[in-house]
Amino acid sequence: MASSIRGRAVRLLDNFINQTLVLSTRNISRSLSENSIRGDYQGCQSSVLLTSETRGRARSSYRRLSSAGRALRQVQEPGRQASPLSPAHRVSLVDTDLRHMFDDIKKELESQFELQEIAKYYFDGQGKAVRPLITVLMSRAINTHLHDEDRLFNTQWQVAKVTEMLHTASLVHDDVLDASDTRRGKPSVNNLYGQRKAVMAGDYILSVASTMLARIRNEEVIVVLSQVLSDLVQGEFMQLGSKENENERFAHYLKKTFKKTASLIAYSCKAVAILSGADDSLQEVAFQYGRNVGIAFQLVDDLLDFVSSSSTMGKPTAADLKLGLATAPVLFACEKFPELNPMIMRRFQEPGDVQKAFELVHKSDGLEQTQFLARQHCQEAIKVISTLKPSEEQKALITITDKVLNRIK
């Protein structure tokens, strides 16, 4: 089964993103506890009622995910040494940088009381902060590569904060569009304050982030990060549609995934490279690292929507099917179960579509193929970042690919 999974996933990579990726892989999944896969999806508008047989298949699918990989070798030039970093060491590299980030952002959002209260709601330090973490590490890694010093420029620090603000504003707007009730284990902004105020708060976060970006006074960086806003909106529009042809549908999904998730990470990495004085080739290294990690992050997110629980994720699971969205696990499952195709085209709107699609995904190898594709993108990220001069931050960026793949929420 593993060889067939590998073949199909690689063909998709060749067809849709025209890249040849190294096929060495690593086992990156953690087994979920028995109570992690449940039939009670809190916060969803309707429940997916799982039979005992379906729950068993869900558990079995995740166990297969935990054993499907092979050892991943870090790609390095001869003579380079990359000793592994402990999680504590990895965090300590940027702990000083990130410690006051949310306080700094809250100061920027000072305004009329209720508006600032809503705008600050998600800046409580409970998020993963993956995007500013990667941005800071990339800044220091490239500064070491170019200048033999790992210090963080103030302009790069501003980009890291803007990155988190753009991401958070997109979450506020996503929750409105999806009518989500929860986010990060607590009521969503739109649930507490209503949709109109949530939309305005999201717009306000974007406006403040734009002002902070303008203060950097670098036209190239402003152009690069402005592309993120364009991509976010285009990604939302792409999510509203689908393609009849299966191959076009997966290409559409990957392009949408880049625009909605990976664009922010990729262009933030490119922006800090520009601020470090990087040439075009080094800017591309930073961009491709962010692009591949970002796509892998979303692939894992789409996988977790089928195997994790609401309590673990801090938001509703099995939500994509209810929203009419066909993500990677469903698209891969179509290879074995073509009866999913008409469900996708009608956006799972007929009675029983969500339940049936959920079961077919677990009967297929769609989850394993999604995990394999995420591993390939992380392998490509490791490949490009290994071209930088060795440093603690470069090693941390390599280690982060495991964090992305191993996450359970």
TrEMBL record:
<dbReference type="GO" id="GO:0008299">
    <property type="term" value="P:isoprenoid biosynthetic process"/>
</dbReference>
<comment type="subunit">
    <text>Heterotetramer composed of 2 PDSS1/DPS1 and 2 PDSS2/DLP1 subunits.</text>
</comment>
<keyword id="KW-0460">Magnesium</keyword>
<dbReference type="InterPro" id="IPR033749">
    <property type="entry name" value="Polyprenyl_synt_CS"/>
</dbReference>
<dbReference type="Pfam" id="PF00348">
    <property type="entry name" value="polyprenyl_synt"/>
</dbReference>
<keyword id="KW-0443">Lipid metabolism</keyword>
<keyword id="KW-0808">Transferase</keyword>
<dbReference type="GO" id="GO:0032478">
    <property type="term" value="C:heterotetrameric polyprenyl diphosphate synthase complex"/>
</dbReference>
<keyword id="KW-0479">Metal-binding</keyword>
<protein>
    <recommendedName>
        <fullName>All trans-polyprenyl-diphosphate synthase PDSS1</fullName>
        <ecNumber>2.5.1.91</ecNumber>
    </recommendedName>
</protein>
<comment type="similarity">
    <text>Belongs to the FPP/GGPP synthase family.</text>
</comment>
<dbReference type="GO" id="GO:0046872">
    <property type="term" value="F:metal ion binding"/>
</dbReference>
<dbReference type="GO" id="GO:0042811">
    <property type="term" value="P:pheromone biosynthetic process"/>
</dbReference>
<dbReference type="GO" id="GO:0006744">
    <property type="term" value="P:ubiquinone biosynthetic process"/>
</dbReference>
<dbReference type="InterPro" id="IPR000092">
    <property type="entry name" value="Polyprenyl_synt"/>
</dbReference>
<comment type="function">
    <text>Heterotetrameric enzyme that catalyzes the condensation of farnesyl diphosphate (FPP), which acts as a primer, and isopentenyl diphosphate (IPP) to produce prenyl diphosphates of varying chain lengths and participates in the determination of the side chain of ubiquinone. Supplies nona and decaprenyl diphosphate, the precursors for the side chain of the isoprenoid quinones ubiquinone-9 (Q9)and ubiquinone-10 (Q10) respectively. The enzyme adds isopentenyl diphosphate molecules sequentially to farnesyl diphosphate with trans stereochemistry.</text>
</comment>
<keyword id="KW-0414">Isoprene biosynthesis</keyword>
<keyword id="KW-0496">Mitochondrion</keyword>
<dbReference type="InterPro" id="IPR008949">
    <property type="entry name" value="Isoprenoid_synthase_dom_sf"/>
</dbReference>
<dbReference type="GO" id="GO:0097269">
    <property type="term" value="F:all-trans-decaprenyl-diphosphate synthase activity"/>
</dbReference>
